[in-house]
Design goal:
The chain is of the alpha+beta class. Helices cover 24% and strands 42% of the residues. The protein has a five-stranded mixed sheet with strand order 4-1-3-2-5. Strand 2 and strand 3 form a beta hairpin. The longest helix is centred in the first third of the chain and has 11 residues. The radius of gyration is 12 Å and the shape is globular.
């Protein structure tokens, strides 16, 4: 059971539409830890850590996001493994 962390930057109509809340809900369903936070440039940054298949599932979900959002692009990069408590909305 491989563990990994991925940081994603989501571009589009993703602020003010409940994107962080829905992302946290999906992440917790997948038993992931990390955070979702708004960035000043209008993107949302998501850090997801946990089982590799769960992180991949959340990354796939981010490509579409919740029905209230309009995702244009998701840039993903590997992140150093870190233990995070829960999934925070920052």
């Amino acid at each position: 059971m491989s563990q990994k962390c991925v940081k994603a930057y989501v571009t589009g109509h993703v602020q003010g539409v409940g994107f962080r809340y829905h992302t946290a809900h999906e992440a917790l369903k997948l038993s992931l830890t990390g955070y979702a936070k708004n960035l000043p440039d209008g993107r949302v940054e998501v850090l997801a850590c946990g089982r590799e298949e769960s992180v991949d599932a959340l990354m796939t979900w981010l490509d579409k996001g919740p029905p209230t959002a309009g995702v244009d692009q998701v840039d993903k990069e590997g992140a150093e493994w870190r233990a995070v408590d829960g999934f925070a909305i920052l």
